[in-house]
Amino acid sequence: MTIIDGKSVGATLAAETGDFVRSLGTSQNLKPGLAVVIVGNDPASRIYVNHKVKKAAELAIHSVKHELPENASQADVLGLIEVLNQDPAIHGILVQSPPPAHIDERRIIETITPEKDVDCFHPYNVGKLAIGDTDGFVPCTPAGIMVLLQRYDITVAGRHAVVVGRSNIVGRPMTLLLSRKSRYGNATVTLCHSRTADIADVIRQGDIVVAAIGKPGFITGDMVKPGCVIIDVGINRVDDPTAKRGYRLVGDTDFESVSQKASYMTPVPGGVGPMTIAMLMANTVRACCLQNGLAPPDHPF
Amino acid sequence: MTIIDGKSVGATLAAETGDFVRSLGTSQNLKPGLAVVIVGNDPASRIYVNHKVKKAAELAIHSVKHELPENASQADVLGLIEVLNQDPAIHGILVQSPPPAHIDERRIIETITPEKDVDCFHPYNVGKLAIGDTDGFVPCTPAGIMVLLQRYDITVAGRHAVVVGRSNIVGRPMTLLLSRKSRYGNATVTLCHSRTADIADVIRQGDIVVAAIGKPGFITGDMVKPGCVIIDVGINRVDDPTAKRGYRLVGDTDFESVSQKASYMTPVPGGVGPMTIAMLMANTVRACCLQNGLAPPDHPF
């Protein structure tokens, strides 16, 4: 069984992106710019945002963090986005989710100009993804998974991929990417979810299983096909008194039993997670290229 | 085996739509308006367009046909669409596909304002469909299929639906609708296509099979599960010297053998076909309601 080392692939992708950023600076005098907006004081959101800004700095991407107070109005947030939409130094905009309850997140997302929607949350970009237009964006986690499959040279075409979980940020876009008529697509794809009958029987058909349901250890060894490829997107906290912080992170699969049957498997942590932020940086660079009429780096989707 | 009579359901839906149109006239002094644009002389396209205009008239929907010559420029078409986008008497706009080769169809589609995109071809509306936003449109053929399932009281939730064919106008939106977390969705959905290995084994799992591949009689009785529901979207011409026109229309399933195993089945013609045009009218009325801040008729998706 081969462990798919997302930490290593993510680092490689980040290094490639950093090299590309530097070459853009030299050859075009261009610097990709990312604006990260956070509203309110959610501690986890603050950590994520700081992590993104730090990663951007590492790759020589210009980044700006906008921190709005918990009581910022909808108009405040929309006004800021309008300014960022017009700012030529900013190529990508993201608003950290979730905003406070009084903010209409959908409205926020639809105000970001699609050209700068590096999270690929805007319906226009989701639609492009769905119809196979390749000049939009791909959301970061699914894009990162496609890169993992590519870098480990895992065949997707003609195989049966089972996606477990129908979220808009992982499950649905994964089904679109894996089934696409494209170099790294062409899989037969089954989408199963909380309402699926006999879910074990469905998962057991998967040559490739993408688990994104948010249930710790849900998929066990008896539920998977021998030789399958397991992509575990779950990041669940489970209590662990022996751990320093009192908990540990586990995926949606039971690593011990599943790893005895899989041929390839992403660990949690260190699998899909590190790819997401690396793809956010790659999407920012892509946005910068597209906004300046330049060819963006190649990608496997 | 029950034949799903699309001709009858389509007529019922059309009559309901006509009643609603008349009530809009009485209560709101509103008349839904549909603009149909055709570029060039493709004979099949002319028939379709005339059919749509005639159906609109039957339902008291205001309709306008714009016929542009084969050599109309891209700018001519875009200019017309801009005018229609602004016209308050027009709530739905469709441009008959395919346009002549020198016209960029994607550009045409993206110029139609999403509010009037009753075909649901604009990426913005496709994206809304994909993320489960119910305030956009649903493309006419998939919407019509959902109505057939509803009117025949066929359970979708928790069952395994197999969609054969990944086109943007039928296959992909069907997978989105059937798997949605909604009253008429919640199926486990498999999308298979030309690159699927062992396609018969996949189709044989379907409690509901939606065939949309454009291959006459491709699915035969041995490839389906006893008791399954068959929705045949194919409309294929096959030579038939005994027929008046020298051909007859057949679906993607072999009716004779499949009908011996299915519990419900749409015939070709007279199954899905009549629903498409009925849904186009329903979408036009929906567009009129949404543009005027009124609640549109209820729909099963």
Using brief descriptors, characterize the structure shown.
alpha/beta, Rossmann fold, six-stranded parallel beta sheet, three-stranded parallel beta sheet, globular
Second rung of CATH, namely the architecture of the largest domain in chain A: 3-Layer(aba) Sandwich
Q: What is the succession of H and E elements of chain A?
A: EHEHEHEHHHEHEHEEEEHEH
- Poorly predicted runs of chain A are none
* Radius of gyration of chain A (Å): 19 Å
Tally of distinct domains of chain A: 2
> What is the oligomer described by this structure?
homodimer
Largest contact between protein chains?
A: A-B, 37 and 37 residues
Overall description:
Chain A has 301 residues and is of the alpha/beta class. The first copy, chain A, has two domains: 27-131, Rossmann fold; 140-274, 3-Layer(aba) Sandwich (Rossmann fold). In chain A, 39% of the residues lie in helices and 16% in strands. The first copy, chain A, has helices at 6-28, 43-58, 74-86, 105-111, 123-131, 140-151, 171-179, 199-203, 255-258, 273-291, and strands spanning 2-3, 33-39, 62-68, 92-95, 160-164, 188-192, 208-211, 229-232, 236-239, 247-250, 264-265. Chain A has a six-stranded parallel beta sheet. Chain A has a three-stranded parallel beta sheet with strand order 3-2-4, with helices on both faces. A two-stranded antiparallel ribbon of chain A has the order 9-10. In chain A, helix 6 crosses helix 10. The first copy, chain A, is globular. The mean pLDDT of chain A is 97. The A-B interface holds A 106, 122-133, 136, 157-160, 166, 168, 172, 175-176, 179, 181, 186-193, 195-197, 202 and B 106, 122-133, 136, 157-160, 166, 168, 172, 175-176, 179, 181, 186-193, 195-197, 202. Strand 6 (188-192) of chain A pairs antiparallel with strand 6 of chain B.
